[in-house]
Task: structure prediction
Amino acid sequence: MAAVQETVEQVRSIDVDQYKYGFETQIESEKAPKGLSEEVIRFISAKKEEPEWMLDLRLDAYRRWLSMSEPTWARVDFPQIDFQDLYYYSAPKKFKAPKSLDEVDPEILKTYEKLGIPLREQEILAGVEVPEGERPRIAVDAVFDSVSVATTFKEELKAAGVIFMPISEALREHPDLVKKYLGSVVPVTDNFYATLNSAVFSDGSFVYIPPGVRCPMELSTYFRINEKNTGQFERTLIIADKGSYVSYLEGCTAPQRDENQLHAAVVELVVLDDAEIKYSTVQNWYPGDSEGKGGIYNFVTKRGDCRGKNSKISWTQVETGSAITWKYPSCVLRGEGSSGEFYSIAISNGRQQVDSGTKMIHLGKNTTSRIISKGISAGRSNNTYRGLVSAHRKAEGARNFTNCDSLLIGNACGAHTVPYIEAKNPKAQFEHEATTSKISEDMLFYCMQRGLSQEDAVALVVNGFVRDVLQQLPMEFAVEAQKLISISLEGSVG
Amino acid sequence: MTPLLEIRDLHAEIAGGRKIINGMNLTINPGEVHAIMGPNGAGKSTLSYVLSGKPGYEITGGEVIFRGVNLQELSPDERAAQGLFLCFQYPLEIPGVSNMAFLHTAANSQRKKRGEPELTSPELVRKVRELGKQLGIDTDMLKRPVNVGFSGGEKKRNETLQMMLLEPYLSILDEADSGLDIDALKVVSNGVNAMRSPERSMLVITHYQRLLDYIVPDVVHVFAAGRIVHTGGKELALELEATGYAQYQNEAA
Result:
């Protein structure tokens, strides 16, 4: 990941908006006709050579979607999206599922190189500074617009029994597994954007960890939207069978464009008895310029089902990008003794609007959950935490601890906290703590008097504020996230 | 001898137009300890903020030369790197940032600005622990977030620790004794005195004479209505203790 750090240094010298991934890759692409119709859905399904039941599921979702309307309860404001003015499928033209990296278009490889995402396994192995063996290895699935272009370390994972592949491939190779779990956590009719996703999703990652296996490396998917006027609708499905463990990381970037782009993903996690999934996100979609022009609309449904006894899901997210974020990674705590965690850092600057939080739904006995949310607003942005903690009738002994802190930088931004708490079992125990504070001039001056530049002072104070959450990220991503935070807030004071 | 700090006919105000410093002159040579005494509201703290460059305090006339450089041209962090240190009357708390990490960042930010090699973590930790011992600061206090939950005495010891680590040419001590019991006062004063050398100078701002029993000044100034109205030796502090400031306030008005 050293390459990413170099780019961080470089980007400091560029004086346009601080977004460093704003470049565009020149590549010919093949698209579905513009707009959404049954024909387009059939086109996507045929492109993917999907089984019949999958097409039926898509068409069913599409018909239901037609009767649904967009949710309006979030504290975000944007012009009506014309869903007929979008492309729902875009793939690099010469694209045919590559057998090896040599078959992947060099332009695409270059794009990922520029982004600091290593796709060549030998390069990942030959760590530059860290001696081999000590360097953590990460298997990467790279998704470019609507298709997965490369997945690394497939063979080694296969030897451990782990399935990690594009979901389109999994539909062909492991249809029974996909059929059993797809839509079992986020039903087709869940919400407007999830239903749309069910109808048109084009790719994403599929992970299956067999019973008792501890996944031998971090898994990671890297999403890149390149094409204009194209929505990205990826679908991720991760299943941790009994007694297994996996840590998964997702990263996202997009070119800098004046138009808004739509990203409506669905992530489903299934955790069986005694298994654990740790899911981390570093979301850095293009946030639009400082006046609010362009940027990604990030409307994402993420949910995990702790289906088995003593199962565990941990969501960690660092959100710095997107013009609008609408995202509530949730845990359904069904299995007895299961637990859910949500650690979040959401940063908004410029004109960004964030409405994000989590849902912890306690169904089983003795289920526990923990929410640590840190919202930072700067510029003229608005940052809302929205969360639900509920205990159902049978959730005896359910426990939750919630801590929501907001930090304001400057005078023109807003922070809002909207917690919903419902306890239907008298033996449930919920705790909620919340604070709102402002970075004070005095604090910055104190740091500067000791020799820190203004930007370093802001970064120091902010990093102190988000420390509890950063500690939850896998090590090298924590370093990345820390740098990302200072870049996102550059120029936010003074 | 080239003065370390030279203040010439300084006028300054708080943003919004309230004039606080009103034609002040002061020369501090290397190695000297100067005390500034004066009644509440005379502008003593303002002087420390103007010298260190706090936003909102504006120089409207005159100039301040520190080590040959016009301070007005430097940002607060550049002034710090030049060797100007302000020991805060009320040190700020920084939640989530460990004291050690803060010291590390501060020391290396200054070194970087001066083009000196940065300290490695082991070097810094060794140095900080040594200084900590002199000041009665244990490792636990170094791990805790900067000043969060520190007692008044701990905060002042922590300020002294920062000063000793950063080795400034000029230390401005703003009411360094406020909130200190006698034992803590001795510890802090010992730290400050250990720093005294032919190159280093101090500007001790206080309205009680007590502190000057421990940090003995070479020169004492009486500061009233935004300027120095009287200057004397260390015995002046004792006189003031007996007579109060009233006569000088009349003089200034």
About this structure: Chain B touches chain A at residues 52-56, 75-77, 79-81, 85-86, 88, 91-92, 94-97, 102, 105-107, 109-110, 113, 145, 162, 166 (CB under 8 Å). The longest helix of chain B spans residues 99-114. The first strand of chain B starts at residue 5 and ends at 14.
